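pinging the channel bc i need a second pair of eyes. not urgent but kinda urgent?? the chain im working w is below, pasted from the shared doc
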Amino acid sequence: MGGGGVDGAIHRTGGSQILEECRAIIARQGKCKTGEAVITSGGNLPAKYVIHTVGPVWNGGKKKESQLLSNCYVNSLNLAVENDIKTVAFPNISTGIYGYPKNEAAEIAIKAVNDFLANNTFIQKVIFICFDDENYGLYEAMLSSPAL
């Protein structure tokens, strides 16, 4: 809804159309719950669509945060397939103000995406957008590891 971090940047750059579409979604179905995803147009962005997901706030791992974070990726990818989107870019969901440990979040993101792609060949490209050097280093190391 245009808060801070990545969400705020998307809304500032994408313009009021994205916010208007989010408001229409809320009026129709209520707020998006943690781990769920919805889709809007890209507004003024170069992307045709924006898939919005609500990441979990870190509570020490005691409130099913890992499953909720995984759901963010899986539900977003499912929406991409449903809308004929073949390329998806993900930020480091929940690792900012929501406080999710970056290492754990990266492992969950990569595993969720790899598991999804193992069973679905429609999506051709997934990009992880890292907004700091720490996340970039984690993703670079994990993605080059033969274990993942």
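so Strands lie at 37-41, 49-53, 87-90, 125-128. and The two ends are 33 Å apart (CA to CA). — does that match what u expected or am i reading it wrong
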